[in-house]
Amino acid sequence: TGKYCKTNKDCETMSNAECIQGACGCKDDYMMDMKNSSNCIM
């Protein structure tokens, strides 16, 4: 869902995101904010 990454540091522009299989995604227990795709919320 997010941008290409190699490390979690590449995902710092997204809140509560981590690098998962080469793409930034929301951490466990977080979901994508439908109003702001670079934001992960509880």
Structural overview:
This is EB domain-containing protein. The protein is mainly beta and 42 residues long. It has one domain (1-33). It is built from no helices and four strands. The protein has strands at 17-20, 23-26, 31-33, 36-41. It has a two-stranded antiparallel sheet with strand order 1-2. It is globular and about 25 Å long. The mean pLDDT is 93.
Number of strands: 4
Our measurement of the CA-to-CA distance between the termini, rounded to an integer number of angstroms, reads 17 Å
**Main sheet?**
2 strands, antiparallel
Total discrete domains: 1
Overall radius of gyration = 9 Å
Characteristic key phrases:
42 residues; mainly beta; two-stranded antiparallel ribbon; EB domain-containing protein
Provide a quick synopsis of the model:
The protein is mainly beta. It is 0% helix and 40% strand.
Task: Give the helix/strand layout.
Layout: E1 17-20, E2 23-26, E3 31-33, E4 36-41
Antiparallel strand pairs: 1-2, 3-4
